[in-house]
Amino acid sequence: MSPVIDQAVQAQLIASSPRPRPIPAHLRYEPADPFAVHIAFPPAASLDGSEVEWAFARDLLAGGLLSPSGGGDVRVWPCGPDRTVLEFHAPEGVAMIQIDTEELRGFLARSYALVPVGGETGFLDLDGDVEALLRQI
């Protein structure tokens, strides 16, 4: 079993109310899915009362710490020197959160220690993925 990075972070939900609302979140990185990071939000943070998880490119998160990144369902950008905004687009609407930039940098540093940038393909199980796809047919 390969190691997994699972880090609790305190996010601030940016809403139309005057003050951001704190919500817990969990960042996760697995070498078995080396190009992606995952962030999960508890049921209390969703419109329908179920846990919500997003997966997006690790490179997108890293790039968003320095300058606006992304153009699809997930966008990331720095918000001053200490905070980073993650914006999630879904058919139901848009959610924006802020996370401490140093927490994100630490999470990324640990992910790079497991799977260095450029070494991701060495962690892919292409044969296993093809077998799984063929079983679904």
Explain what this protein looks like in three dimensions.
The chain is an alpha+beta fold and 137 residues long. It contains three helices and seven strands; from the N terminus they run E-E-E-E-H-E-E-E-H-H. It has helices at residues 58-64, 101-114, 126-136, and strands at 5-14, 21-29, 36-41, 52-57, 74-79, 83-90, 93-100. Strands 4-3-2-1-7-6-5 form a seven-stranded antiparallel sheet, with helices on one face. It is globular, with a radius of gyration of 16 Å. The relative contact order is 0.17. The mean pLDDT is 87.
| Low-confidence residue ranges | none
Characterize the main sheet.
7 strands, antiparallel
Q: What is the typical, i.e. mean, pLDDT?
A: 87
Spell out the helices and strands N to C: EEEEHEEEHH
Quick one: overall form?
globular
Please tell me how large the radius of gyration is. Answer: 16 Å
Number of strands: 7
The helix count comes to 3
Strand order of the largest sheet: 4-3-2-1-7-6-5
Q: N- to C-terminal separation?
A: 27 Å
- Quote the beta fraction: 35-45%
